From TrEMBL:
<dbReference type="InterPro" id="IPR002545">
    <property type="entry name" value="CheW-lke_dom"/>
</dbReference>
<dbReference type="InterPro" id="IPR036061">
    <property type="entry name" value="CheW-like_dom_sf"/>
</dbReference>
<dbReference type="GO" id="GO:0005829">
    <property type="term" value="C:cytosol"/>
</dbReference>
<dbReference type="GO" id="GO:0006935">
    <property type="term" value="P:chemotaxis"/>
</dbReference>
<feature type="domain" description="CheW-like">
    <location>
        <begin position="37"/>
        <end position="177"/>
    </location>
</feature>
<dbReference type="GO" id="GO:0007165">
    <property type="term" value="P:signal transduction"/>
</dbReference>
<protein>
    <recommendedName>
        <fullName>Chemotaxis protein CheW</fullName>
    </recommendedName>
</protein>
<dbReference type="Pfam" id="PF01584">
    <property type="entry name" value="CheW"/>
</dbReference>
<dbReference type="InterPro" id="IPR039315">
    <property type="entry name" value="CheW"/>
</dbReference>
<keyword id="KW-0963">Cytoplasm</keyword>
């Protein structure tokens, strides 16, 4: 399986993707933890760097303008046709309240498998795939009830980089996910 498709981003080998899949699947089958350690695809939203479980990633595509859906929430950019499958495209920058959400040459769509559904997520850029050991991950800090932290698995320090590790399946509320499932 090719991780990249039409994307002007740094090449990631399908070998490392397959290796990650095999290792993480084996860990899950053995009852091991799959949430705090393993391989993560890293990407940028504004000035912050995030990581998501590589096993949730289907492919990375260059940004193409989606077909807008009337009365959709602002973070739902629309839909695209991905090899015959209609895929909703969410803009994570808008969903997470980033100051800007401009489209440029390095803006990409990460095609994800979320709760059995294929969904596209617009991000500013993709960095790389990193192996993150569980001991490198710190719990997310406690915040007031005003800050939605349900999608943050932890914070990882990798060299000089600080990564916010996301549970991408928790990014949408039950109501939002239900609306998506009903619409598509």
């Amino acid at each position: 399986m090719s991780l990249l498709h039409d994307a002007p981003v740094r090449q990631m080998s399908s070998t490392s993707f397959s290796s990650a899949s095999a290792k993480r699947t084996a860990a899950a089958a053995a009852g091991g933890s799959t949430t705090l350690g393993g391989e993560f695809l890293t990407f940028r939203l504004g000035q912050e760097e995030y990581g998501i479980d590589i096993l949730k990633v289907q492919e990375i595509r260059s940004y193409e303008q989606p077909t807008r859906i009337a009365n959709a929430p602002p973070f739902l950019k629309g839909v695209v046709n991905l090899r015959g499958v209609i895929v909703p495209v969410l803009d994570l920058r808008i969903k997470l309240g980033c100051e800007t959400a401009e489209v440029n040459a390095i803006t990409v769509v990460i095609v994800l498998n979320m709760r059995g559904r294929v969904v596209g997520a617009v991000v500013d850029s993709v960095s790389d795939v990193l192996q993150i050991d569980a001991q490198m991950v710190q719990p997310a800090p406690e915040m007031s009830a005003m800050v939605d932290m349900r999608f943050i698995q932890g914070i990882a320090n990798v060299g000089e980089r600080m990564l916010i590790l996301m549970d991408i399946e928790s990014i949408l509320s039950s109501t939002e996910l239900g609306a998506l499932e009903a619409a598509f």
